[in-house]
Amino acid sequence: MSSDIQNIAKNLHPLERKVVPYLATGMSLAELAQKSKLSIVEAMRALQWLSNRKALSITDEKKELIELGKNGTDYQKKGLPERRFLSALSSTPLGISQISKKAGLDSAEVNICIGLLKRKAAIDISKEKEMMISLTDAGKGLVSKETLEEKFLKKKFPLDPSSLAEEEKFAFSELKKRKGIVALNVSSQKIITLTDLGKKLKTVKVSGKVEDKLTSSMLKTGKWKGKTFREYDVSINVPAISGGKRHFVSQAVDYIRKIWLEMGFEEMSGNMVQTSFWDLDSLFVPQDHPAREEQDTFYIKDPASGTLPPIAKKIKDVHENGGDTGSSGWGGKWSPDVAKENLLRTHTTVLSAQTIARLRDSQIPSKFFSVGKVFRNESLDPKHLFEFYQVEGIVVDPDANFTHLKGYLREFFTKMGYPDVRIRPGHFGYTEPSAEIEVLHPVTKKWIELGGCGVFRAEVTKPLMGKEVPVLAWGLGLGRIISEYWNISDIRELYKNDLKQLREMKAWMK
To answer: Which of 35, 390, 488, 502 could bridge 22 with an S-S bond, Cβ 3.0-4.6 Å?
Structure first.
């Protein structure tokens, strides 16, 4: 026996020592656990360690097995319902309720028994005050005769279907038609295959006692002296440990915040629950616009409404007749009750409206941004979510123009990995001019739309700020911007919270 094998045997973990004597090629994990008197978890741990030592290999073998269902387990103890039904019958006819009570059967089981026994000509049925059952001569013969199904249920489960005799196959076929008695399931078994090293380890006898632990008591009393201790194998494979980290979407959000802060922008923040006034009316969205319908917007039931600010009169005038903006407005009657309705914000542009309404002359020019959650009553699909991040930005500057707007967006998208940016005409209700932002996909070399932008209309800025000042604005869908980095084509994967995905996902760009 080589000293290497002896040394390996000496340094086996106690769980490994318990399973080694019982190891055999072709043995299953369940068999090994039973023979070694270990739990399945303990036996599996020992096998994994031995596999790391190259003493064996473990393979998953799929196998069809006949297993008992819940009813099958119950019937093994109490007997099949039809047996209990027959046993309950006496020489005189009995009513259904009497048989059910005497045999301990529910109504469903009674109905099954009647069908089965009627088919075997074992019972006669007559109708009096209630249905009466009596045994036929054939039924009397069945009382003392064990059926094929009963014999089958006495077997030890699970069963290999290939081991069944013809009569057993018939019994299995009959029982399988019934609910919860037996089923043919595919199970996965871990099968052991010994290597040459494993075969040799089975024959090794370790001389002397090997200690597994060095205790504080041994150190205090000096009893550790002269003892042989099991060595730790620092070269052995160990499971990978995933350290804690921020969700990959949160990493991207932090990076985007950093981009705007480095460009001199201030961050906007605000509540996710807003009134329709701030979310829609202040942005010159008409009160009969489809975006206000419940199929598009999540409204709050409690509290269902909020309060209006002092500038509500100016917003009312702009909607009804254009106020002092030179616009004709939307016409009709503006409803304060509709404006008070609470909702989950449909865009972060609501923060832009609230921000410019608070600005003083001394704060102009200013630049602001936000990265926040918004909510739309959308159906989930690969391109749409009902809750997602929006990247919002505004620049309030008397000298701002469309060239500046494109410059800010080009700088942002370049840092996001999209250096080629273009702007094409579009339409948004609260900006004029309006445009859609497109970037060149780095792989497909096709232009893709990632957001909208424009200059706030006078109907937005004048009632909120008291004067007309150019306000550059943009709103970008974060999910579409960041998905390419992780090669995600279905936007739902951003939030599926799959642990394997979270552990393996590469970190966001620095």
So the answer is: 35
